[in-house]
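Hi U.,

Before I forget, here's the chain from the pilot set. I'm dumping it here mostly so it's searchable later in email.
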Amino acid sequence: MSPRSALPLRHEFVVLGLIHRHPAHGYELMQQWNEDNGIALVWRLKPGLLYAALEKLERMDFVCSRLISGSDAPDRKEYSIKPAGEAAFLDWVKTPVSSARDFRQDFLVKWYFLQDVNSPLASELITRQVVICRKWLESLCTQRDSSYGYQSSIFQYRIYQVQGILKWLLELSGESH
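Structure:
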């Protein structure tokens, strides 16, 4: 198994976050993920990816499952988070994203879960992400200034994206520019 396949990826962290809230079975996790007023605003999930993530998380010993019998329904596996899974989730959720490309999904999902965790973690994540965004902006401006034509216009586009991200983060934190 390659080192990359051993690491939890985005889907697994989102699943951990949902299970961190409370134990649930696969169908319930699918419903929670795809609620129109939650994670589905930024990211939809298909059942195959969910069940693959659950299997991977069990193999990694991040979650455990137990079979629950249903009187009027088939037996279901209910998943609970284990201490290693909780530690991995909390580490992931408080870590800023490292690229503007990952902001749209990864950061917004982290923000979704931080509404549940606690305010100091949310505030710390925003503060750290603002610092990183300012570095992205500085780097993009330098690259734009040493380019021309099409390349320069692409850097300008990315600058506008990062400026928008930065403005939104500062509004969340209660700061103005």
